[in-house]
Every structure is written in structure tokens, then in C-alpha cells.
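Next up, sample data.

:::
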Amino acid sequence: MFDKSVKLKNGVYMPVLGFGTYKIEDGEKTVQAVKNALKIGYRHIDCASFYGNEASVGKAIRESGVKREDIFITSKVWNTEQGYENTLFAFEKTISKLGTDYLDLYLIHWPKELNEETWRALETLYKEGRVRAIGVSNFKEHHLEEIIAGAEIVPMVNQVEFHPRFPQDGLLEFCKKNKIQVEAWGPLMRGNVFEIDLLKELAEKYNKTISQIVLRWDLQMGVVTIPKSVNKKRIKENSNIFDFELSEADMEKIKQLNTSERIGPDPDNITF
């Protein structure tokens, strides 16, 4: 396994490289992809009730032969499940599908009107020891400020869209200041990173793939990253990012690719 992790503010260790399961078809495709990832050495699996494949993720974990306590499992409460009681109910459904009695990280998937009540439910689950860490996803600074203002426990993680075209400097700085670990979804821009000339040049310079350059950049930016693939070769390739380092100059060049261009929805304007 990859012995690379970051310590969250409550002392829990979170692997810096995870395996994403968004849009992997439920059933054998998910089972195989997750089993392949675990066999290769991933120990951090990211899922969500909205993805509709939690039962398959759970099946893969059970069949993998890897001990549950050696795997860091994240899931998220969906928008329609928000609210205090609804969230507690959604959590029970999630762990039942996954076949576990606890989660390593539970997140609010998107900022919505019921965030405060939902966060209270996450705090309850954390205090009861049902979840080892709690956090949010897709929260901007002002959403975080609202949560923090009424919270007993400050979010430990914020999973957001983060990639070379959208490095979110202001949000990164805010999270660092508040000891909130940033985690990147869509780090490879759903494949669009492969069209960027600078990344092609850097891949050649370091004798690495474009994916490896971008994922390494995430880690050096202090950001946990969760690439997704169903291709065994690419799953392995994405994990080979611990044997090289990008220079400060090249880190800066990648940061200059910023166009503030999102590949996903703006959290201030979601209608789902």
C-alpha cells in the first residue's frame, strides 16, 4: 500500500491519494474497479449515496481481502437527504449498503438551505463514534463561514473541484487558515488536462504521464486527490506519483494555467 497520508485536525490520518467512484456503473464494473484499486495499493475509497453504487463498493471491499480498518472510506449525504433526522437515516442506509458499521469520513455533498441541521447530525454521528471525521463538499468560503459560525466542530475536510484551470487560491488559503483539509474532485478535468500543451511538455521533462504530473501537483499543493478510472492500467498509473517531485518553477507554471473555469456546477447556483 502507499504509505502517504495527511493528519486531519482531529488526529485522524487520511491517505493523500484516493480512488473516486463517481459515474462508475453500479454492479460488476464498480466491483472490479474498486478491487483493482485496492489490489494496486489504494487505501482510500471515495463514494456517495448519489452515485448509486455504494453496495457494489462494499462488495468489492469485502471481496478484496483487505481489512476494513486499513481502508479509509468516504461517503456523502445527498441534497434530498439533508436535515437532522433525514441525515441520520441516510447515514444508516449508506453504511448498510457499504456493509460497514462506521465511516472514516462523512461529507455534506453540496451547500443547501438545511446545511445547519445536517451539520448538527454529522456532529452527532462523530460524537457517537460512527464517523471518524466529518466535513463538507463544494463549499465556498461564505458557506464555510456560515457552518463554522453555528458549529461545535469545525469541518475537517472540504472536497471541491480543483485542477490546473481552477486552483481556487482564495478557498485554499481560507481552508489552510482554518485547518480544513482540501480534497480535489475532478483533478484531471474529466480528461481535458490531456489537451494542455504545458502539461504535455512537463510530462516529457519528468518522463511521467500528464495524469501523474497533475496528481503530483495536487499533492505538492497540499491537496488530497481522488482520480477515477475503470481502466486497470490507468488506475495503476495514477498511483505512481510518489517517486518524483515537481520543481517550484514548474509548480508555478501549472498555477498560471488558472482561468477560473469550472467543469462542474457553481455551488451558489445549484438547482438539484
